[in-house]
């Protein structure tokens, strides 16, 4: 019975078969992006669990967190080399960076979620003790939210790093494979030939 069940879940379609059925070419980039979506799906599964199945609540929380950190992240100048003088100065000043508060309207505009829905989710996050309100329209993450999301945040980062590592390995393998397929590429390195 178990063997029969396993056979049912095995696909009889290979990547080559699938590529033949797709109207455009199934490029290596398409394969890599499909693998990269694994990270997004894993994050959504975890978020669904952490936010009691409410992915809209997760999105509102994430948008507030992102908005709060945006000024600090801009100050880092991530396009600079990590050992550049500007980067070192920005890293030293990171703890002095102010949070950028946001409001329901900016969250609604950024996410496309109706403003009234955002307001309800903000109230729920406040009831959980995850948001602080500075005046009527200034929202920032509460220390409790940062503490409670520390462990899940580490799990997301580890998954992100591993996904990035596998993509780099696959990309290198695809590049090497393409070089070998070019005309004349195999003539120099064929069996029995000296380099």
Characterize the structure shown.
It is a single chain. This protein is mainly alpha-helical. The chain has one domain (30-170): Arc Repressor Mutant, subunit A, CATH 1.10.10. Helices cover 68% and strands 3% of the residues. The chain contains ten helices and two strands; from the N terminus they run αααααααββααα. A two-stranded antiparallel sheet has the order 1-2. A hairpin with a 5-residue loop joins strand 1 and strand 2 (139-141). The model is unreliable at 1-7 and 187-195 (pLDDT under 50).
CATH fold assignment:
Arc Repressor Mutant, subunit A
Write down the overall geometry. Answer: extended
Number of helices: 10
Overall tally of structural domains: 1
The neighbouring-strand order within the major sheet is: 1-2
Give the CATH level 1 class.
Mainly Alpha
Report the radius of gyration as a whole number of Å: 24 Å
Largest sheet, described in full?
Answer: 2 strands, antiparallel
Number of strands: 2
Helical percent range?
A: 55-70%
| Low-confidence spans | 1-7, 187-195
- β-strand amount: under 5%
CATH architecture: Orthogonal Bundle
Distance between the termini: 55 Å
Helix-strand pattern, N to C? HHHHHHHEEHHH
- Rounded mean pLDDT is 79
Task: Provide keyphrases for this structure.
about 70% helix, mainly alpha, Arc Repressor Mutant, subunit A
Question: Layout of SSEs?
Answer:
Layout: H1 2-9, H2 15-21, H3 28-50, H4 55-76, H5 85-93, H6 104-111, H7 115-127, E1 131-133, E2 139-141, H8 143-148, H9 150-181, H10 185-188
Antiparallel strand pairs: 1-2
Helix pairs in contact: 3-9, 4-7, 6-7
């Amino acid at each position: 019975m178990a063997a029969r069940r396993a056979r049912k879940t095995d696909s009889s379609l290979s990547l080559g078969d699938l590529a033949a059925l797709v109207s455009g070419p199934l490029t290596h980039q398409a394969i890599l992006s499909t693998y990269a979506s694994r990270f997004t799906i894993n994050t959504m599964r975890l978020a669904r669990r952490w936010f009691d199945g409410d992915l809209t609540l997760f999105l509102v929380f994430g948008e507030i967190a992102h908005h709060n950190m945006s000024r600090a992240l801009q100050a880092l100048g991530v396009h600079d080399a990590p050992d550049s003088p500007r980067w070192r100065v920005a890293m030293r000043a990171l703890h002095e960076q102010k949070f950028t508060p946001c409001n329901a309207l900016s969250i609604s505009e950024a996410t496309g979620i109706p403003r009234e829905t955002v307001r309800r989710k903000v109230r729920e996050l406040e009831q959980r003790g995850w948001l602080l309100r500075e005046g009527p329209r200034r929202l920032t993450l509460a220390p409790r939210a940062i503490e409670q999301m520390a462990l899940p945040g580490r799990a997301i980062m580890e998954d992100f790093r591993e996904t990035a590592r596998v993509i780099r390995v696959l990309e290198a393998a695809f590049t090497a494979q393409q070089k070998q397929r070019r005309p004349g590429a195999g003539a120099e390195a064929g069996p029995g030939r000296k380099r």
